[in-house]
Amino acid sequence: MKSITIKGSERESVGKASTKAVRNAGMVPCVLYGGDQPVHFSAEEKAFKGLVYTPNVHTVVVELEGGKSYSAILQDIQVHPVSDKILHIDFYQLHDEKEITMEVPVKVTGTSPGVLLGGVLRLNQRKLKVRALPANLPDFVEADITPLEMGNKLYVTKIPTNNFRLLHPDNTVVCQVRISRAAMKAAQEAAKAEKGGGKKKK
Question: Which residue windows are coiled coil (predicted)?
Fold first, then answer.
């Protein structure tokens, strides 16, 4: 999985007044969990652009002044309900030998015969929850729709996994090819025409 580097400064004071001052300075207050003790730090809001405002997922390298560096993932984010300004971010520290759970996007590949015949592809799951060691976290989960005929569904059990596990029930539908109204109407008209032709032969 691709990684983004966030450079910040460790915070000693974490009270409300201090947090407000950090935000007023155009910085985002953050907390890193998962280690021996939480690490409070702040970073420029623009540093999170490639992490927050994207459909992709990334791991994070938090680099703090003094040479401290931590590998982490985004755990939680708070944004202002009106301005969408980032108010606070929680990170969770990664450990090479410890599995982590996170959601990754679904990437559709292949060409469905059902879609070529006029069916509509519906993506039921835009993200899937995976569990793996940090080094094995995928950038995306691949959903191959090549076998899908009209009306078929692709279940999570058909998704290939490589050094990671999918944390979903076997009956979870990732995507499906639904019969479009146009295709349904065409089929009905064809059936009527065939039935009418049969009557004429009699």
Answer: none
